[in-house]
Write a structure and sequence with these properties.
Length: 179
């Protein structure tokens, strides 16, 4: 049942986002905010706190996103938070992204990188992942300093770990097995 609700919210958000002039930008902003909620326990707890009035939780969203995101993005996040679904926001947005990509015959690759990737880098990466997986791939980048360098890409159930951290772990294992 929870999955049905997530899908229903995702479908509704997608319909609203598509009606916006800058629908792709709205989707990207939703994706970035969902990752922030996912990675920040304090933010997730605050936005999910049933003891805080919905208006106060919405005010927090306004303070965080106001002037930094499109009004449509702020409104959609505020709606989800007011409905008491802040904890589900990452799953809702992931479902939204997947629904839109599937509608375009694509798969989404979530790529973790220590640094922001420019448009050209993202396009090259999308081409490389498309060749590697045999699928038409769209890249969503998450800046994650713990990656140190390189990239970690996930396309569906396939994970391609080209991070410096992964390589260092492999070297540690190799040296540990020699002793």
């Amino acid at each position: 049942m929870a999955d049905d609700r997530i899908e229903a919210y995702a479908s509704a958000l997608l319909a609203i986002a598509r009606s916006e002039e800058h629908s792709h930008e709205v989707e990207d902003e939703l994706f970035e905010f969902a990752r922030a909620v996912e990675e920040n326990d304090e933010l997730r707890s605050t936005l999910s706190d049933k003891h805080l009035p919905a208006a106060r939780r919405q005010q927090i969203v306004e303070e965080l996103l106001g002037g930094k995101a499109l009004d449509a993005t702020v409104g959609l996040v505020s709606m989800i938070v007011a409905a008491g679904r802040a904890r589900d926001l990452p799953a809702i947005v992931d479902a939204l992204v997947s629904l839109r990509a599937e509608g375009e015959g694509k798969q989404v690759a979530e790529v973790r990188s220590a640094i922001e990737l420019d448009d050209e880098q993202q396009e090259r990466l999308a081409r490389a992942l498309s060749e590697a997986t045999g699928k038409d791939v769209e890249v969503k980048v998450v800046v994650d300093p713990s990656v140190l360098g390189g990239l970690i890409a996930q396309v569906g159930d396939t994970v391609i770990d080209g991070s410096v951290r992964h390589r260092l772990d492999q070297l540690r294992e190799k040296f540990a097995s020699r002793n």
